[in-house]
Amino acid sequence: MQRLLLLSVLLFLAGCEAPPSDTATFSPVGVDEGMGGQPDPGFERAIERREFRFPRDHGPHPSFATEWWYFTGNLGDDDDRRFGYQFTLFRVGLTPGGPTPDSDWRAHQLYMGHLALSDIDTARHLSEERFSRAAAGLAGANAEPFRVWLGPWSISGTGDATFPITIDAETAEFGIRLQLESGSKPHVLQGEHGLSRKSAEPGNASYYYSHTRLPTRGRVRIGDKEYTVEGNSWFDREWSSSALAADQAGWDWFALQLEDGRDLMFYQMRDKQGRAQRFSKGVLVGMDGKAQALTLDRVTLTPLREWPSPDGTRYPLEWQLRVPEHGLDLNVSAAFDAQEMRHTVRYWEGAVEVSGSHRGVGYLELSGYAD
Amino acid sequence: MIAMSRSLLLRASLRYLLHHRWQLALALIGIAMGVAVVLAVDLANAAAKASFALSSQQLRGAATHRIVGVTEPVPDTLYRKLFTTPGHPPMAPVVLTHVRVDGHEGRVRLLGLDVFAEGAFREQLPGLIQGEASVADWLAQPDAAALSHSAAALLGVTTGGALTLQRPNDTYPLKVFAINDDDSLASRDLIVVDIATAQAAAGMPGRLSHIDLILDDPAAIAWVTTRLPASLSLIDIAEQTNDTAGLSAAFELNLTAMSLLALLVGVFLIFNAISFSIVQRRRLLGRLRAVGIRADELFRLVMAEALILALVGGLLGSVLGYWLGQVLTQIVAATVSELYYQVSADAMTLTWQSLGKAWLLGLAGTSAAAWFPARQAARTPPLTTLSRTALEDRTRALIPRLALLGTGLLIAGLIVALYLPGGVLTGFAGLFMLLLGAALITPASLRLTHGLFTRLPLKGLWRLAVRDLDRHLSRLSTAAAALMIALAASVGIAVMVESMRGAVSDWLLGLLRADLYIVADDNLSDDATLPTEVVQQAPLLQQVGTHSSYRSRKLQIDGRRTRLIAGELAATSRAGFEFTARGADDPWSAFDRGAILISEPLAYRLGLTPGGMLSLPTPNGAQDFTVAAVFRDFASEHGRLFITASAYRQHWQDPTIDTLALFTTPGTVAELMETARERFSGRHALLFTAADEVYAESMAVFERTFRITEVLRLLSIAVAFIGILSALMALQLERRKEHAILRALGLTGKQVSRLIVIESAAMGLLAALLAVPTGLAMAWVLTAAIQLRAFGWSMPFDVSAWPLFATVAIGLVAALSASLYPAWRAGRQAPASQMRED
């Protein structure tokens, strides 16, 4: 679910004014203006349950306005040096329907990529953003063979199979090259059989499934230095044509992998007064891969510590997460504070450590805090 | 004591100047004109350059390198390949083409960009589309176009307005999607569209004009070069700018040289004015020396006076130059826009640099001009200062020495211009030496020519006038030299242009032998080809006797964009080539065996002669070709090459044709044109042109090129005209007393007037006559050295009588006009009153 706001922003690429451009790339998004709008009615909406089919649904769904392939993970090398990574390719439908076939470059979609690497031991956070039109072979996605790419950044299957998935994303400063096995757990359908409602309005929902624990090995690079790493990744897939409701401000999203083999996802939708809304929900995935839904009334979430980012945005980076009926009383805290993504859209996304009743690692995403 | 003498000197000087307002005014005009012309040309040049620099700067943005096609446009698959390869440097694909817009004269640039790639490159251009409209629409709407504020004004559209691009068979509609507030002149002729729109509108599917790159180290450069196929090359942007700026540099140099010429004339005028004022003040100066003013004080007085004149003249000149600069910028902008690249006429800005340069030149010129008279004034002892003849004797004694120095300079100038290695600058240096030399010889030549005049069997007033002239020669010689130089420059330029016009005309007539040309017409693409149907069937039309076919394409050689033309040439077409250098072999048999013909500019630049080898980039890599011969060619200063169609097909694997030249049986041209039009024009984008149309159009371009030259020529004549006017008028006004004596001796007022007119005319004629050989020498240097050095063009030296007559006439008219007022005054006033004066 998570990056809904991000995407709803991207949806309305109404550059009503040039965004602050401290980055070198062209930034097509006017953040403030992107929030309240509605996607073009020509796009399909997630209203009813659907029958998921694979590998087809690993591929793109261009009749929907937004879609993403979202990877996060905690990795470590032989010397126990720890890393977190986030790699996401977003597909953004700009105009419904196919483009005029007058040029290979004509595009109705664009891709945005976010790549981040957290070097936990040195508390160093590296990140980069890319954009491209989905045309002329510059960026795109296929189900069979499975491949999603944005320039040189790619997510690809192996032969005809989806797994193992290879992630390859390099920048001048850093890069990752990882192989993700399917592991022992199947995918989990979020919400109601994969239909994840975001507000009271019908159609304000997404199709959402996750692979919560994918054994991962490969290399990460910082500068000239390469590290051979392994660990677990989390893979989220979501597509929709929905936007935030007018009273929604953002969300706090948790993806935790516990040492006992269970995985927990929970997101809290916040209204503009900072209160959690009833559309907040999650899932607890057992060692056997069986999923149990989590609703707001069964979970208590308490922020414990705030971190002011360099520009003064205050992010809650330590939380108490309790699910009494499953015996969970977790302390979730940032592996280190400075993991803010400062690109076209500003949010905090970083590796977290879990302690308390259970130990584990995970990823936390905080959106809607920055101006 | 010192203070007193200084104030005394200044007062004496001031009173003198105020008393001789005419003279003061004329001296000031001389300086002002010189400064004005230099400033004006500098401003016009700077405007053209700034407009170009800004435009190319804005176009290339932060790019350091560019991938261009050696033989064809860049396939967009290459961009995809590079873009999807890890480690690629910042890149931006560009489609850039020239288009015509309905209702607008001239072509504008259509620039297709990928906004997502632009951030690192051109900051302003993506800004263009971040108006109120969305990126979604920008990408999806095939008619979305963005303009700068100035471009919208130029094209007369507002947001939401329509622009119609003309295409050979149809039009391509654009809608103004956003207008940027940026009023940059560079984007004045720029229509920015999405790259997909540019490809569609320009008919360039799958192709890019170039790929811009930012490569900041050798590793990045290597990263790109190792991934480039042979048909593409990576160029340094600076080099590419040189290519485009190459001609503009020659153009600019041309203008600068002309403006310096005007200054040179100006300097002579200043020299004349100041030395004249010294002569006139001989009594005053003598008295000052007699009351104990030292020689060096007098020297400084004259110099100070000159400097004050220079400052005031410079100020006047700046105002005049600013105004003149605007006029010149208009002309330069029009010429450059038509011939090279779009320049905006309102790009002119007055900079301190231009002002300073012009002032400094004016100051230096004035100082140099004043130095000799000042020394003269200072060195003469008190008594002789009083005597005019002494001064004139002194000057007269100098004449042979000056003549000797002048001859030396003249010969040296010829050698420098014609034989010394080096570029255009060396050529111009030689030219200036030649002119200066000729100016120094002028007094001696005047005496000589005057000697001839005196032997003419003249009677009465005429005889008196001619003999009288001799006494004033020393003072007139500077004015005469100024007039002579201006006239000589005028002759030189006129003869050069005339020679070139003749050469170009001959060349065109030789080249355009066919009766009808069928050309693939595509406004939007430089690389249109003829449909196979036309190529096969047009030569079979009933009226066609023989035909030639051509395929022309851009080829990057030595960093310059040359043109390679593959030709299947009929005998008549071959006869149109004029070879300026050929090997032992017959050029055409060598050509048929696969050797190439290269144009003169290319041969000159590369130092190639027949038998030499030239390596050409082909899709299969570099290939060596033997040069069969060098042909005269004015089509491009960058160079052209001819190759046989079969050799071209073998190396370039391109069977297409873009031009057909058809030869008819006599008297059937119109009929052929009609038949061909009927047969083909409905279905294909074709241009049917008769040879005479091409000829007329080419000659029109030629005339436009030299419009600015003509303006500058007239300007330097104007400067000289004013100079001669001032010199003669001052002289005649000074001689009022003399005239009064003549009246007293019995000459009527009318006779004195006539005397003045005849004297002036004689001097004008003398200067004009001297200007003819000097001008011819200058024309020779211009054609044989400057044109060759700048463009590699050689041409026959072609002198027609008209510019020579015109020059003599201008000299006479100038001298005559100058004498009118003094003659009128001398004829009217009573002898007694004139004698009393002074």
Notable characteristics:
heterodimer; A: 371 residues; mainly beta; AttH-like fold; 13-stranded antiparallel sheet; 52% strand; B: 838 residues; alpha+beta; 6-stranded mixed barrel; 29 helices
Short description:
Chain A has about 375 residues and is mainly beta. Chain A has two helices and 23 strands.
Model description:
The complex is a heterodimer of chains A (371) and B (838). Chain A is mainly β and 371 residues long. In chain A, 3% of the residues lie in helices and 52% in strands. Chain A has a single domain, classed as AttH-like domain (AttH-like fold), CATH 2.40.370. Chain A is built from 2 helices and 23 strands. In chain A, strands 1, 2, 3, 4, 5, 6, 7, 8, 9, 10, 11, 12 and 13 form a 13-stranded antiparallel beta sheet that branches. In chain A, strands 14, 15, 16, 17, 18, 19, 20, 21, 22 and 23 form a 10-stranded antiparallel beta sheet that branches. Chain A starts with a helix and ends with a strand. Chain B is α+β, with helices and mostly antiparallel strands. Chain B contains 29 helices and 21 strands. In chain B, strands 12, 13, 14, 15, 16, 17, 18, 19, 20 and 21 form a 10-stranded mixed beta sheet that branches. A 6-stranded mixed barrel of chain B has the order 3-4-8-5-7-6. Chain B starts with a helix and ends with a helix. The chains are: A mainly beta (371), B alpha+beta (838).
